[in-house]
Structure formats: structure tokens, C-alpha cells
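testing teh design pipeline on a random one, pls ignore if ur not involved
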């Protein structure tokens, strides 16, 4: 039953209800889970390095940057799974509360009431009030952060090896070309032989191989499917590209499993 019928409730109660009328009320509110769902390793000029070299503040910045970039890409609308959860119960002796557009919770917070229905399945009238205002539940934040760190650490390690292999191959190819055709290389002003380092950026590989950025990511994705090229637009500035590891599916699955366990434990 929708909220637009609540005035009819009040009129009916005031005229035909017993003076001792009372009822139970359940208040439901939309909930979203605060969670870490990925990590930003840097822009295309950032040399990819092991996460073990990062302190907690730097890691938190990288987690937040992933969320910030994703939100910017989705033009400030980031679809997140929400569900209605019971947040408060009360016992009332007057139906007047059913006509309120807003209600004050026990903690003093005021929330909107967007829908009402009556549950008589147990023989008693229980009025369920639903609010579309959303609150964030951080119960899984630390555990999802640990999950992303564990997954990302392995993928960064794989990525660094792939990038090293790509650069070594480019180095050998360029050196062989220079040795076989020194005159032609000089004539056409071939780019210098790639510099061998301990770590590389996406830009380093693109310059050494003369390949597009998407080709570099395609090579990385053979072993690291969660690696993505994240384009972020800023008004009046060129598009920036970030190297990110997206674990949204893994995190959502983890949360669903934890919620299922809680349901089993309460049975």
C-alpha cells in the first residue's frame, strides 16, 4: 500500500478504531556497502612498482583514486547495489505517524518516509515504513580492502614481469636492427634503443614498441584480466589515462557470501 493512502488510514482509525488501538512499526532504509573495489596504480607515466613499497597512506590514496576515477567516468553517477534493511522498530498508539513525510530516529537523525505497507501475515498489524534515503554500512570496508590488496599484490607482480618481458623484447629487437642496418637506422633517425630499468610505465612500453596503449593493455590482460585503461575527462584539459586494477565483481561476490553466512547463522 502506498504512502498516498496514509491519510485514509488516519481517517479510518479516528472514526472506527478502538480507543485502545496500538500497532507495531518497522522502519526500513536503503543501505549500500562501503567497500574497496579496486586500486589505481597511477597514470600512463607512472612506473609500476610492487605494493610492498607503498605505506598505508599511499595505498589508501590509490584505493580512493580508483573510486574517484570511476565516479568521474560515470559522470558522478556510480550505480551501487542497495537493499532495504530494518533499522528501527517502535510501538505506536496513534496512526498519526503514518501521515508524516519525515520521521526522527532514536539517534536524532531525520529521514524521509517514501512508502508504507501493512503486514498482517502473523495475525497482527505491522506497519512497514520505507525510506529511500541511503546510508553507508562500512562493515566490509576493511575486509574488502584486505581482499583487494591481496589480489592486487599478485597482479602487480605479474604485470611487472610482463612489462619487463615486453621491454626486453623491444630492446633486443632494436639492438639487432641497429647492428644489422646501422646506415638505415642512422638515415631514418630510428628512435634510441630502449633503456633497461627495474620498472616501467605504460608510456615507456608504448615508446619502446611503437604500439598503441590498447595493445600494451591487451598483452597485460593475457595474465592480468583485471587490468584496465581508465580514461578520465577533465573540463578544459586533455583526457588522462590511468592504469587500474578493477575487482568489483570479486568484491561483490565476497559481500554476497558474507551476507549469506550471516543469514545462515541467524536461522
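output:
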Amino acid at each position: 500500500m502506498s504512502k498516498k493512502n496514509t491519510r485514509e488510514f488516519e481517517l479510518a482509525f479516528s472514526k472506527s478504531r478502538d480507543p485502545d488501538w496500538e500497532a507495531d512499526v518497522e522502519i526500513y532504509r536503503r543501505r549500500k556497502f562501503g567497500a574497496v573495489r579496486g586500486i589505481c596504480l597511477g597514470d600512463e607515466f607512472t612506473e609500476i612498482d610492487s605494493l610492498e613499497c607503498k605505506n598505508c597512506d599511499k595505498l589508501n590514496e590509490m584505493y580512493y583514486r580508483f573510486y574517484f576515477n570511476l565516479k568521474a567516468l560515470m559522470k558522478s553517477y556510480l550505480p551501487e547495489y542497495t537493499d532495504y534493511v530494518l533499522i528501527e522498530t517502535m510501538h505506536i498508539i496513534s496512526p498519526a505517524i503514518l501521515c508524516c513525510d519525515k520521521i526522527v530516529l532514536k539517534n536524532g537523525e531525520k529521514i524521509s518516509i517514501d512508502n508504507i505497507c501493512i503486514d498482517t501475515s502473523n495475525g497482527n498489524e505491522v506497519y512497514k515504513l520505507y525510506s529511500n534515503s541511503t546510508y553507508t554500512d562500512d562493515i566490509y570496508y576493511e575486509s574488502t580492502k584486505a581482499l583487494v590488496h591481496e589480489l592486487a599484490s599478485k597482479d602487480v607482480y605479474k604485470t611487472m614481469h610482463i612489462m619487463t618481458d615486453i621491454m626486453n623484447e623491444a630492446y633486443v629487437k632494436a639492438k639487432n636492427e641497429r647492428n644489422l642496418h646501422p646506415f638505415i637506422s642512422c638515415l631514418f633517425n630510428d628512435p634510441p634503443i630502449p633503456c633497461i630499468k627495474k620498472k616501467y610505465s605504460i608510456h615507456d612500453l608504448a615508446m619502446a614498441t611503437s604500439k598503441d596503449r590498447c595493445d600494451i593493455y591487451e598483452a597485460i590482460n593475457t595474465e592480468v584480466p583485471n587490468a584496465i585503461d581508465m580514461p578520465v575527462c577533465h573540463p578544459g584539459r586533455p583526457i588522462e589515462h590511468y592504469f587500474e586494477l578493477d575487482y568489483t565483481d570479486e568484491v561483490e561476490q565476497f559481500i554476497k557470501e558474507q551476507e549469506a553466512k550471516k543469514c545462515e547463522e541467524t536461522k
